[in-house]
Specification:
The complex is a heterodimer.
Chain A: H1 8-29, H2 35-40, H3 47-58, H4 61-74, H5 80-84, H6 87-103, H7 109-116, H8 119-152, H9 156-204, H10 207-217, E1 231-232, E2 235-236, H11 244-262, H12 264-271, H13 276-292, H14 294-307, H15 323-331, H16 336-372, H17 378-403, H18 409-433, H19 439-461, H20 470-495, H21 530-547
Antiparallel strand pairs in A: 1-2
Helix pairs in contact in A: 1-9, 1-16, 3-9, 3-12, 3-13, 4-14, 6-11, 6-13, 6-21, 7-8, 8-9, 8-16, 8-17, 8-18, 8-19, 9-14, 9-16, 9-17, 11-18, 11-20, 12-16, 13-21, 14-15, 16-17, 18-19, 18-20, 19-20
Chain B: H1 13-20, H2 25-34, H3 37-57, H4 61-66, H5 72-93
Helix pairs in contact in B: 3-5
The chains are: A mainly alpha, B mainly alpha.
Chain lengths: ~550, ~100
Amino acid sequence: MLRLDTNLVDYAILAIYFVFVLGIGFIAKRTIKTSLDYFLSGRSLPAWITGLAFISANLGALELLGMAANGAQYGVATLHFYWIGAVPAMVFLGIVMMPFYYGSKVRSVPEYLRLRFNNPTHVFNALTFALATVLIAGVNLYALALVLKLLLGWPIILGIVVAAAIVLIYITLGGLSSAIYNEVLQFFVILAALIPLVVVALTDVGGWSGLQEQVRASGLGDAGLHTWEGTGVGNTTNPIGASWIPIVFGLGFVLSFGYWTTNFAEVQRALSAKSLGAARRTPLIGAFPKIFIPALTIIPGLVALVTIKGLGGDDPDLQYNNAIPLLMNEYLPNGMLGLALAGLIAAFMAGVAANVSAFNTVVTYDLWEPYVRQGRSDEYYLRFGRIATVAGIGIGIGTAGIASGYDNIMNYIQLLFSFFNAPLFATFIIGMFWKRMTPWAGLAGLIAGTIGAAATYASYKWEIIGFGSELESAFYGAMVAFAADAIVTVIVSLVTKPKPVSELQGLVYGMANLEEGGPSASESVWYRSPKVLGIGALGITALLSLAFI
Amino acid sequence: MTDDSNKVPTGDPLIEQAESAGGDAESDSRALDLLDIRRIIGLLLGIYGVILFVLGLGASDADIEKAAGINVNLWAGLGMLVAAAVFIAWALARPLSRAVD
């Protein structure tokens, strides 16, 4: 039984963290006067804060534990999820797409669809997005409770209720500011927790060269040390079980661009920035930590693989997902142990909070205000947003129950993304670059893409088409969703009436709303240029990639 | 806090209403100063740094043995104290109400 040997100091470190989390909520409340303050932090935050929040909202515990699990299972090839599956899309969001999001002053991703297309497209997307966020918030709550039960022996229901209550308090009080400031704090707590763990673990196995040697001798073998080896079509021998086609197009293009560029839980962080320049830098600043985070997830996964006997075997305590908790138990003395625990819990709460703060915004601005109660005062919508927060967390507790029905939580999440995000990306990219795309094509494309993802998943489940692995089927599902959305979009556009070009100001390529009088002097320093940051991030990624072919 | 770029008209009534509800910029920036995350991060890492450093000073051989021969509390505590000092210095050198970015 994996039960951490915690003492009073560890609990004190945990308690101090909770005091800070709630304290931020109470201070953030003082900055809130309008609904825009509550939902978008009054569009006032500097780029380094929104950039770190951008990466933190993604750095939930599911991501940390899941990627460490992938590290143990697939080895160095897990780098694809970072260098192919994240950095290029983040650069694209900052350089190409952000002027349309921020410049058009939309308050959410679904709202862009309302302006660019029509109300039915907007409602369809707002509803599916609201559903996806509460499902994912529920998954995070459930996974946190599982870890608390495993490590501290807390009953599942206690873990869910305590975590939900803390998130509820700080989001209801301080809205997005509270979520974002906590995300930045959480980012540093996670670093403080994981860096010492990685250093100790790596020292124990004799450094990187010692680790390489032991991985070669393990079940994973030499294949676990390469990213691209064995990804040939028809000769797919790499541990992920996918050829380069689904890796590049499914993961690298559709899934990744879909997640990073259209997921409002991410984009919302950039919309809260204080200027268009800061909004564009948000994902670019986030890209730099993203390049190096795999060192904190894949290395622990590999160390766990070679040091913990029976990892990934039949014992449920020794499943791959527990790689990081197992190493904490193995190496950390009291004190660091409490800090690592705080980092893990922080990461879970961030996963819940990012989704809840996106949920309350979409429910208020995209469903309640335009379609249910129009033309009320701003105070009314601010109050409603707080109620929506409470409701969202309540539903999240309910959906935690649904998540408990799935054995593999990461696959459940991948499934949600391929259904909700992949088609959305096709609609966005065509809508932004093709003025002729019509309002009804927006709705038809989204529905067709969702059906495409569902059909691929069904044919995998019922073994109509053979895939190398469940992961490969998810990559292909995303590609099918994208293609179905794109084809239906083009066909419907050709037979329906487009919007007059005058209504597309600020929404389509070539008609972006730029900052009046150009960027200010402080914005135009070379190291703040989106192009310099973007090319820098891609360049570092390319160089590092060469080292791990 | 708001600059010209925030006043691009959108032609959409729902967005215009939310944008025009705006608060008083002066008091916003004062409240933000209170919420300077750099001070909060510095304080939290500082507290953790002290706790871990003190634990590290009294580390038992068993603790060090467990962590591959490294006194991890001591070194991690020191690292956090350094990081805390950097954040506090940054926040004091460039307070939010004056900072450009």
